[in-house]
Amino acid sequence: MSINQLIYISQATRKMSNSELLQIHTTAQENNAKIDVTGSLFYNGGWFLQVLEGPIETLSKLYIKIEKDPRHKNSRIIYNEPAKFRTFTRWTMNMTNLDDRQADKYDELVEVIEAAKTDRKIGSASPAVTLLKIFKN
Question: Any coiled-coil ranges, and where (predicted)?
Fold first, then answer.
């Protein structure tokens, strides 16, 4: 079965508490396990950046559902490409709250989100490609 990687960025409609982020994380883990989706969600300064990996049809349906979530707005796909392998194989959904500044790869991840917000490249690469490279290693 072929897989795609879909990455989107969106803005939270309000500041998210740690308990709200934990609830999003738990729900995503449970739901994604049922539909063969893996990935990671990053939160920083009121912005979400999420990587989803799975069958293209599944990701398309999931993204439509995600777009309707009232906890965020201005969602936009920044990457949606076929992949030879999953980058986030260990997680049905990982969650990194960069607001706590304790995250592994903090500086690199903040730069990716800032670049994605403004459609700016990082060096010669898109923020999405940079994000995938960070976790490829």
Answer: none
